[in-house]
Amino acid sequence: MGSLFRSEEMTLCQLFLQSEAAYACVSELGELGLAQFRDLNPDVNAFQRKFVNEVRRCDEMERKLRYLEKEIKKDGIPMLDTGENPEAPQPREMIDLEATFEKLENELREVNQNAEALKRNFLELTELKHILRKTQVFFDEMNESNREEEQVTLLGEEGLRAGGQALKLGSAAEDGKIEHEGGVNPTESMTRALISDDSIARQTPTGPVQLGFVAGVILRERIPPFERMLWRACRGNVFLRQAEIETPLEDPSNGDQVFKSVFIIFFQGDQLKTRVKKICEGFRATLYPCPEAPADRREMAMGVMTRIEDLNTVLGQTQDHRHRVLVAAAKNIKNWFVKVRKIKAIYHTLNLFNLDVTQKCLIAECWVPVLDLETIQLALRRGTERSGSSVPPILNRMESFEDPPTYNRTNKFTNGFQALIYAYGVASYREVNPAPYTIITFPFLFAVMFGDTGHGMIMTLFAAYMVIKEKPLAAKKSDSESLNIFGSNWQIKYNMSTVWSNKDLQLNPGTDAYLQYPYPIGLDPVWQVANANKIVFLNAYKMKLSIIIGVFHMLFGVVLSLWNYTYFRLTANIVFQFIPQIIFLIFLFFYMVLLMFIKWVNYGPTNPTETGPYCAPSILITFINMVLFKSSAVPAECSPYMFNGQQTVQMLLVCLALLCVPWMLFGKPIHIMRSRSKAHIPLDSNHHPHAGGTENGDAEAALSQAGAQAPAPSGGGHDEPEDITEVFILQGIHTIEYVLGSVSHTASYLRLWALSLAHAQLSEVLWNMVMRNGLIFEDWYGGIALWIIFAFWSVLTVGILVLMEGLSAFLHTLRLHWVEFQSKFYSGLGYHFQPFSFEIILDSAAAAPDE
What we know:
Layout: H1 2-5, E1 10-18, H2 19-32, E2 36-37, H3 52-74, H4 93-163, H5 166-175, H6 186-194, E3 201-204, E4 207-219, H7 223-234, E5 239-244, E6 249-250, E7 257-258, E8 260-268, H8 270-282, E9 286-288, H9 294-330, H10 333-350, E10 354-355, E11 361-369, H11 373-387, E12 394-398, H12 412-424, H13 435-450, H14 453-469, H15 496-501, H16 534-567, H17 571-602, H18 619-628, H19 646-679, H20 697-705, H21 724-748, H22 751-769, H23 781-821, H24 838-847
Antiparallel strand pairs: 1-11, 1-12, 2-11, 3-4, 4-8, 4-9, 5-8, 6-7, 10-11
Helix pairs in contact: 2-10, 2-11, 3-4, 3-9, 3-10, 4-9, 7-8, 12-13, 13-22, 13-23, 16-17, 16-21, 16-22, 17-19, 17-21, 19-21, 22-23
């Protein structure tokens, strides 16, 4: 329990290890996780340390394992995680691990390269298959069109001869303005004839004209710019046909599915041929040989299909072999990662050690908890026995003026609250730990601001479900905004129609309707129908509760500072800080809380006039008049005071509270001046509570610098005494901060009232303006309307009341703990204990993103 309320007592130890046993001993300490090593070679470059080669070998093994892991995940093979935690291998086992990883990597890379080459070959054959099919379709279409054109032309000539209109039709055809009866344009007919199988070479008056063509495959999205570039570069002297490949093709380089199109380009002359090929190369189109004769194309297509079938067989065998290799690796890769990371962590830690002059002994310094010294000794003996060394390790405690690290033992439950404290600042060494008190106060203050009994039950069930499942799940909101378990303490005689239709309905506790005793838990649900005076009642009630909770919370924080002062033997801080602070807070603000309870007890709805609700004095006005030494103005039949002698008591309390201000302001600096004058020399400070005196003025001044009068160990060593002027200035700042902070912090707790009221009002608004509208329909369609409205209301409830209000309440609760509570006693100037622990290293590696 000492570690929960105050950090563990730490000690600096010097460790002497024989070189042969150092690896095994550090491995045992890593499994234990109780030693934080210091770097004894801060000026040595990381690449010049003794075990840098071993670290590089571990980095290389990690790289190979990441490569294997990537390939395993790519194939979707589950990696076996048995939950085992293998020990760190011996140094001689590194060679076997390196050989295993090297063999696996080389084999996998070779298989991948072969598979990629086969896939690339398969892609080329598949593209060639589609080219042969599509180009054959092109040529077949053209041949059929040419035959149809010849028939139409013969019929047209006979008609011309019969009609005797050859001259007229001839000139019209010459102008390209008339189509033949078959609907074939002469220009199009010439183009089709041009690219037919038997017209690749045509005879002209000047000699034979050789027409060439190229065929290939291009990405589908590049077709439009590709066509435009061909038109512009070749000035329209080429003819392009293209057709889409329906099925996507696999890119062998990255495995992506891509869509491509087949194209064929006809041109005339070598110059156009060169230009077309350059354009194809620029657009990364793949060109394939395509025979001119139909018989050659059919023969090539048959050969391509045979080769594709053979490739499919080889590819299947290659994939099976690759899968077997990855499955075998997946069974051990988790354990391999653990082993390699442990080896790497050990050598990283050994690089922090120093070599003695004989080069046979390693020297280390580490912070360890005092309570675990014996456990660490046993771990070192086990390491020595594992290594077979005959020289036992030596562990010596050292004296140090350096502040030790802060170490608080936590578990799954307390770790979350400790993280909230560390987010503000790590506690100074042996300082009071706010975490155990935050475990109680944080949920309490959050609940005050967030919800009611119904919401609390839902959150409790949800928390229990999360503990069982250990998975973050979405929260759900209760569909009821008020929970009536204990009935009501009001006996209302109104009928339901009057209650729901009367907007000015008020509740008067002075009538016979109220049973005159408090509701058991929470707020009486009948207040939900008091539309007229519900807000007035809730405002006053929740505002007073906020002040009461805040004052007690701050008083507890000041009391915790006494625990710090007592532990560190800072008597001057007790006399000149704690006592005036607690008097100031009690005589003013705790007295205000007492007035609230007196008002609740003495002034009731059925009391006589002088103690009735009409004569009940305002707490706020009473407190203001108390500080200003004024009396409250009240009606003649009422008394301005709640008890006899109240004015005298209030004046005495204010005077004593005001005397605490110079007490805090001048007491400590004067005490420091007198201490220095008696000693004639400056006193040194030490972090240990039992080393070096009781009333060290310089140490106390340093503690005041830490902020808000929280004690902390001094910054190590022998500091020069501060100038007395600086002491006065610092004490003046802290005094003003405390006096004004007492007022502002008390007012800050009104956020409990504000957020609680806002949560309740938002719940009521959503119910009245949304959900109630779904209950007014009485016909069959009312169910449909209710279903739609309920869905909308649920979304708003979860989004606004649960998420937004929950986040707001959490942040305000966090602020109340950090500022209003912890500022009374907590400095948070320490640094965290970071032991060499395999568990922490492996958890960090598992949480890190893939490289």
